[in-house]
Write a structure and sequence with these properties.
Elements lengths: L4 E9 L5 H8 L5 E3 L4 E4 L6 E4 L4 E9 L4 H13 L3 H8 L3 E10 L11 H9 L3 E8 L7
Parallel strand pairs: 6-7
Antiparallel strand pairs: 1-5, 1-6, 2-5, 3-4
Length: about 140
Amino acid sequence: MPANENIVELKIFDFDSEHGQITDMLGLAPTKVWVRGEEYIFGDKRNGLKKTRENNYWEYRSTNISNDWIGNHIDKFIDEIILPRKDVLRSISEKLHTELSIVQYIYEGCNPGLYFNKKALKAINDCGLELNIDLYVLSEIDKK
């Protein structure tokens, strides 16, 4: 039985400062960054399209490989990463595109569901975060 990949990310886009300034403000080491003007390959490494980054990007990611309900992972991220940084996230989000991103690659099951209680919704709103959710249902349906 394959395990689902559950990802929760704090993303910051379109800034002119050094990445280290965001790192210092949040007290988090980013899991991914890129720099405006940097070249990258979109698609297959050998035959992909060469592109150039249009903006600076900073990301802090938490990944959980399991078939546990993703809601627990989201709640933990909000409690441990978002809420302790509420004030600084609010000040960042007033100037920059800042989002909470949830991505799930579903290999087991075919009926994803998300639930955000009042505490989670308030935290997202109070921090001024945009919410981006991507669900990829990749499970096989039994054909009997």
